[in-house]
Amino acid sequence: MSEDLPRVLAGRYRLLSPLGEGGTSTVRRAWDESLDRAVAIRDVVPPAWMPAESRELWLRRIPLEMRPMTRVKSHSGIVAVHDVVEEDGLPWIVMDLVEGPSLARVIETEGRLDEVRVAEIGLQVITALAWMSETYGILHQDVRPSNILFEDGRVMLTGFWISAVVRGVIDCSFEHLTDVLPYLAPERILSQRPSTSADLWAMGVTLYEAVEGRRPFEEESTMGTLAAVVFRPPAPTRYADRLRPVIEGLLRKDPAERLTVAQATALLSQVATEAPLDGPSEVATGAPPDGPSQMTAETPPDRPSEAATEAPAGRPRRLRLGRPFSRGAGRRPGWP
User: Fold this and answer.
1) Is residue 261 helix, strand or coil?
2) pTM score, two decimals?
């Protein structure tokens, strides 16, 4: 579309300025003239290589999957979706405007992070994932550092809507999943129906990347990365110490053996509080705990569902979540 801004969408959203751009969308700052507030608006443009039939199906599916997200109650750990409008033949997603950077941007600019801070981030993200799964039966299906945002000391998860985009790309070709593939669970690559265990796998990849400053599965070619995710163990950690049990537990190939929410949060809590780690127990064996936090339910069919740089081996930067991240040059909102 033309970038002759400003422009008003759906008679109420005035587009102001671009915030970021990805392979399938551009995020823009906008002003909601009906409610007198700033918002972020994301268009979703099908990739040029996608066959016409798939493009049409994709564009129809995104609004259908997104509208239930507008009815989700507010949660401090989730970027709210306020509206879905269609204009120029494209869906436009209206969301909270988050002014802080993404975890991907922080890793890129600051290097690997301290284990305690990574554990704090992991706890908040997994809590948000569990809440969405248990309350609404909604999976994320695209957990990765670029979808984890920071603002005013909060960790916020965005991108729940993107599952339709990811599935559309998977339906066409893995070759176009360059940014997403390193975070896809083996069962998703093998075309098995996803469950919340796949989101926990992606969280394991994210924790690894945050503490190591690199991804556990990343080869020179797409097919090499795909094979690594499905068949090979993750690259050995060099800096993970207390986080190693939870990372290894979340990156088990078999989803039935993967850590559950209760097990992962128990381990992360011990690291975040710098408490002594428990000895060998059911957490280490992957035995499921009692209670609803197992997050094993599959998504009902009618429900919606950045490259890091190698850090030096010096002391990692500790990022306190009790205050906002700095917003210097190059750290504008971490979209996409």
Assistant:
1) helix
2) 0.79
